[in-house]
Amino acid sequence: MLQLKGVEHVYPNGTRALDGVTISIGKGMFGLLGPNGAGKSSLMRTIATLQTPTAGEIRFGDIDVLREPARLRATLGYLPQDFGVYPRVSAYDMLDHMASLKGVMSAADRRATVETLLVQTNLWSVRTKAIAGFSGGMRQRFGIAQALIGNPELIIVDEPTAGLDPEERNRFYNLLVEIGEQVVVILSTHIVEDIVDLCPRMAVLAAGRIQLEGAPGDLIAGSRGTIWAKTIDRDTLDDVKAAYEVISTRLFAGRTMVHVLSEQDPGNGFSLVDGGLEDVYLSALTRARRTAAEPAA
Amino acid sequence: MFRAIARFELRYQLRNPVFWVATILFFLLTFGATTVASIRLGSGGNVHTNAPVAVAQIQLIMSIFFMFVTTAFVANVVVRDDETGFGSIIRSTKVDKLSYMFGRFSGAFLGAAVAFLAVPLAIWVGTWMPWVNPEVLGPNRIQDYLFGYVVIALPNLLVTSAIFFAIACWTRSVTYSYLAAILFLVLNVSFGTMVRKWPDFTLAAYIEPFGAQAFNMATRYLSPIEANSQRLQVSSLLLSNRLLWLAVSVAIVALAVWRFRFAERGASARGVKRQLTQQTKLAAAKPVVIDRLPAASPQAAAWWQLRTRTRFEMALVFKSPAFWVLAVVSALYLFSTLNIAGRFYGIPIWPRTFSIIEVVQGTSSLFGLLMAIYFSGEIVWRERERRINEIIDATPLPNWVVMLSKLAGVTGALLALGVVITLVEAVLFQLARGVTDIMPGQWLAWFVLPNAIYLLLMAVLSIVVQAVSPNKFVGWGIMLLYLVSTLVFAGMGLDHPLINYAAVPMTFSELNGTAYGGVVGWWLRFYWLAFAAILIVIGHLMWRRGTAVTLKGQWRTLPSRLRGRPLALLTIAVVATVGLGGFLFFNMNVQNRYLSVDDINRDLAQLEQRYARFIGLPQPTLTDITLDVDLYPSRNVMQVAGTYRFVNATSAPIAALHVRTLPGAASLRAVSVPGAKLVQDDKELNYHIFQFDQPLQPGVSGTLSFRTILAKRGLAALPSDRQSYEGDAQPAANGTYAIGQLFAPVLGMNRLGFLQGNSQRRKYGLPPGVPTPTLEDRAALASNYAGVTRVNTDITVTTDADQTLVVTGARVSDSVANGRRTARFVSPIPTLNFITIQSARYQVRSADAGGVEISVYYDAKHPMNVDRILGVMQSSLDYYRENFGPYQYSYARVIERPGYGGGANSAPGTIGYSENVGFTMDLSDPKQLDFLAYVTAHELAHQYWFHQLMPADMQGAEVLTEGLAQYSALMVMKRRYGPDQMRLLMKYELDQYLQGRRLEGAEENPLARTRNQGYIHYQKAAMVMYLLQDRLGEDRVNAMLRKLLDTYRFKGAPYARSVDLVDGFLSLARTPAERQLVDDQFYRITLYELKAKEATVRLLANGQFETTLTVDARKFYADGKGNERPAAFDELVDIGVFATRPGAGETDAADVVAMQRVRIGSGEQQVRVVTRQRPVYAGIDPYISFIDRNSNDNIVPIVDSTRPLH
After folding, report:
1. pLDDT exceeds cutoff 80 at B44
2. Are strands A209-214 and A201-206 parallel, antiparallel or unpaired?
3. pLDDT for residue B706
4. Residue B1203's pLDDT band (cuts 50, 70, 90)
């Protein structure tokens, strides 16, 4: 069980990346959804002991992460959002080296680890190739392979599917699901479907704060009755935006479909829709923006 | 389109870090070369640092090294788009190949051209630096800088840009381009060495791509005045060279562009096949797959991780092309320096370990330092640059392992190249050169361990500097500053070993081992290791793990991270550093005196200021010296008890006796003069004055007794000045070479050892130096050149029983009792007061040379040349006794001593050789000059021309000592080896003389007035004496010399002067022309230009061959500054026709078809030679007897005029 209490992080330039994040994450896949710049990566890095928060507390089981980062690292698997590789090093050698860094000391153990992971991530046939020459999907699979070394209790994957084609993405998620049952897996993404497909629990992070937390199903159910839709002409969009709280606009057969957030029937031709997770997410963002705007006003 | 692309490319290059690194690096290199007095590229002596020639020369040299920068620029142009993957986008636009490629090439070339501006700029800035001696600077003229930049540098940049652009286009690889650049450099260097043997440089000047030959031909014999003042002209040769290579460059680029294909290259058929087999092999291997991954145990893995991580870091270094580039360059550098190491007159040495180890260390340290700087930057920043830092930092790798593994990785790579590979290369070199006795112990103790520690210290410094720098470039910059400081600190008087990081001076001697400076060296190493430990802790604490960790943040939180083990380690390291430093300081500066160069100069200045007024004060003359010496070599202690007997040889009473020991000598422990009392006792400058109770009357004698101890207390530092090593090392454990002035006082004050150089003298408030008395100064005839008188010596020495003693005088007794050897040596005749006491575990080989026992004392490991030396001693003594008169001793000894910087010298009956001179010379190639014979004969000749005939202390003194010793040695050489070796020898002497006069710092004197000008009294004197004996007759010259010797042998004042010798030569002259020749050689600076222009041969009706040789002859008189005026040439000159080219090493007497002495006048003229045999080469003065400014154009091939040319 990973627990964050009031985690704040302010960068030296004054940017408040995390603003009192308090959350508990149990075993299984946990989705962290948020737009770009919401503080997802800052939060991930903070949990992964790569940066020390300005304030707050992080515990994983009996580990006080901020006091004893080394203990957390011993049981951590981390796949950063964007990573490079050493030049002129093959996938096999690099995994072997990572296994060493994680503390798999016996050669036989390391061999088993490396080869099993290579097979699991479908990289066995290219194991002698330099990772620098890998395609995006292969590289991400290598990334997850290294994160799995040594059976970590906590796995953090930050935006793992950016730039992957659907097939690669699928393959990648299958891998994650396999391991996601026994340990804590935090998956950050800005793609709603990822969460729907994979995560029994999720949270929405925006402006450095947790805006919403729960099981996707519950959240969808909770949003029922608040999302309204209408198909309008494109040139009236600005008027609609002024009058209602628009959470999304989408082109549909040449006209524009708007979703608005409203506790009551806004009338005026809007009809209630069965909101998906995307609507939940977008309405959370809209609310966040609203609260962020209020103090300024 | 072309212009837009070129402009974009130029802007891109200007923003590239490579551009700035290169600009700064070349700025610093050039700046160093112009402002550090000891470097001075292209100038030196009277040639100004910013003379037109020097400004162009520096740019020439830098433009060659700049090749590696242009390669980076142009290779980047070609490869960049493929690497970034942007290529396909660009190539699919409408841009055409021609403007794309030419545009980019132009942009990159312009970028290089702009970066190279750093070089002229650095020269210019350098001329304004306050510490640069204004005497070596001339006016800055913009056209000089422009000439170098436009005529020399730009075309060179274009040539290299073009070549490596083409190679990058072809290989599409930066690495291959670099390898090609190295290959190109090697080829160019070997081409340069090769053409030096060519008879005519003209062809080479055309085809050499950098214009170095053409430039050299135009400028090499410029006098300093011309070099400083003349605007450089584009000689036709240089112009042709530049135009040729301009055309070649354009052609290369055009070809490269034409052949370049936009499309990416597919795999070759062979590549596909190879991949296929590899894939089947890979597929065949079955993976080990398990259900549950094994658990990790990071808690126990730290040390093991350190090892793995270190190996991984090292592997990355080994895989980087930069490592192999450096490895190849360092190997080339090593072999070329090994090859020239220790050479005199081009003679190689037997590369015994002790004699090459310094060169090997130098290469290892230089490349180690460069590698440490470069790879530390790469390694410390690698994770961040490769963006893999988050993954690595999130692993359970302990913090201390992170930095230590990087340190170990760099160190490992440094050791692999700097120690292991270098060692293997050096040993292979030894084996290849026939040295099988490779002395593993010496390699280990003198190279492997010390250099391993040095490299470790460099790795620590550069890693820690990177760890505390905000980025890689700042780190590199700091290390560059460190590099500069190692060069500059010593010059600023900051030469104490305790403040120069990792600098441990060492000495190497096979005789004495590391007994001198070895122990203190190890203490210094431990001191610096302790200091490095402090650095490591700092680096560890400042290491930035994770993202968003700033230096400032690390600094703020430092105290909290210091707690625990880091603090303990830091404390231990600080205590060790301070403890060791304090201990060493106590030993070096309190127990002993550590003298920086500044301190030494200040002492000399004080001595002069206080006591110069006593110069010329009448003093008693020393007549007898009795010494009792106890030598304890293993303890480096020598105790001396001595008695001097002196007499008042003047005609007036003498009131006071001045007794002093020279700077650097042991001070007097006790001194007494019966009948006199000590009235002044200056212990600081070791100057003591005794007042006689009754003034010493003329003809009356007195005595002086003294005791001195030559020893050091504890651990003394090596002197800052390497020149002082030899004296400072005494008494050495094996190979003691104690000379009288180290341990015995002198009587009276003189100018010996006064501070030299007017800028130094000014710095310490001294008036300009007193000039040497001129030839016309009759008063100067009273004092002799050696500054000592002839004395009777009686010296008894005891030493360890296993050592052999050789001391001034004849051996009277030699016995061993109680583990001590005692030997007594007594001078058979009064000899110059140059006492030497030598003791070592010597082998001795002796022979009889007509009643003289000749012996060589040598180390058991150096027997290679002993017989040769004995042979030369024999033939020298034969020649000298036959021609000059009797040899004064019943013994002649050659004694080897440790090579602490000394060379060869000649004490009474004794010739000293450093082990680096002569004993390790490899003379196995009979075609090589026997330089050892030359030196041995020269030193033995000093037994006549110094020890018998003593010149007065005035101008031209060295003509009588060195000049006549050169002459004597030449005659011995001529007799031993015939005229063929003489041409080789003369060519060396001529080149050395011509170079020497270019480097002259003050004013060149005519031969008869030379003073402290080695290039005149060795090299020019050899040329002149050889010419004169050739013209006037060897026998006649020898008869004249014998007479001269008879006049002055063992005589006191008035001493001989050079005029006596010149008069002797003039007395031999039979014609006005011969008189003129003698005058020209001794009283003027005379230079000749003899040139063979062309030669044709035709068959005469009588079946003989008539060769017509067109020659050109000129003569010049130069003044001391190098201003020349033409003079009429009218001499008998050798004209020769040959079957093979003389001087190529193959010519022997049979190849000389005809040789005639012909009267030649000024200017162009034709000479006809009729021979029975058809000659192939013809030449004027083919054996180089005149001082010819260009001795390479004396011989031409003969063209057959009877056959039409096709």
Report:
1. no
2. antiparallel
3. 96
4. low
Cα–Cα distance between B305 and B400 in angstroms, integer?
Answer: 11
Using a CB-CB cut-off of 8 Å, the residues of chain B touching A115 are: 287-289
Kindly report, residue by residue over B1118-1129, the tens digit of the pLDDT: 988 778 899 999
Q: Is A41 on the interface with B (CB under 8 A)?
A: no
Q: How far apart are CA B1008 and CA B238, in angstroms?
A: 39
Nearest to B546 among A51, A112, A119 (CB): A51
* Nearest residue to B659 (alpha-carbon basis) of B669, B668, B648, B651: B668
Sign, Cα dihedral of A59, A65, A67, A68:
positive
CA distance B979 to B977: 7
CA distance B159 to B790: 66
Q: Tally Cβ neighbours within 10 Å of residue B1083.
A: 16
What mean pLDDT comes out for the span A281-297? Answer: 72
Residues 6+ apart with CB under 8 A from B952: B773, B780, B781, B782, B783, B784, B785, B1053, B1054, B1055, B1056, B1057
Torsion of CA A232, A234, A235, A238, to 10 degrees: 80
d(CA B422, CA B276): 39
Q: Which amino acid is at B744?
A: A
Residue B441 and residue B861: Cα distance in Å, rounded?
15
Looking at residue B478, its amino acid is I
Sign of CA dihedral B113, B119, B122, B126: negative
Q: Is the peptide bond before B698 cis (omega within 30 degrees of 0)?
A: no
Judged by CB atoms closer than 8 Å, whether chains meet at A49 and B294 is answered as no
Which residues on adjacent β-strands are paired with residue B913? B896, B904
> In angstroms, rounded to a whole number, what is the distance separating the alpha carbons of residues B939 and B866?
16
Model ipTM? 0.91
**Distance of alpha carbon A228 from alpha carbon B360, whole angstroms:** 84
Please say whether the beta carbons of B349 and B921 come within 8 A: yes
CB-based contact B309 A48, cutoff 8 Å: no
- B212-219 helix and B236-259 helix, angle to the nearest 10 degrees: 170
Q: What is the pLDDT of residue A296?
A: 42
Q: Could B279 and A125 be called an inter-chain contact, meaning their C-beta atoms sit closer than 8 Å?
A: yes
**pLDDT score for B1046:** 94
Half-sphere exposure for B1057 (CA within 13 Å, toward CB)? 20
* B1038-1050 burial code (b ≥16 CB/10 A, e <16): bebbeebbeebbe
Measured in angstroms, the CA of A201 and the nearest CA of chain B are apart by 25
Asked if B382 is an interface residue toward chain A (Cβ–Cβ < 8 A), one would say yes
Task: Report d(CA B462, CA B210) in Å as an integer.
Answer: 35
Which of B1061, B782, B833, B1035 has the alpha carbon at shortest distance from B945?
B1061
B398 contact A CB<8A: yes
What count of residues does chain A have?
297
Distance of CA B1179 to the CA centre of its chain: 35
Contact B506, B517 (CB under 8 A): yes
Indicate yes or no: CB of A102 within 8 angstroms of CB of B396. yes
Q: Is the pLDDT of residue B959 over 90?
A: yes
Contact assessment for residue A216 and residue A60, using Cβ atoms and an 8 Å cutoff: no
Of A70, A85, A89, the CB nearest to B396: A70
Residues of chain A with Cβ-Cβ distance to B394 below 8 Å are 48-50, 73, 76, 78, 80
Closest chain B C-alpha to A78 CA, distance in angstroms: 7
**Is the Cβ pair B305, A103 closer than 8 Å?**
yes
pLDDT at B1198 over 80: yes
**DSSP for B844-886, written as a single string:** EEEEEETTEEEEEEE-TT--TTHHHHHHHHHHHHHHHHHHT--
pLDDT tens, position by position, B584-597: 999 998 888 887 77
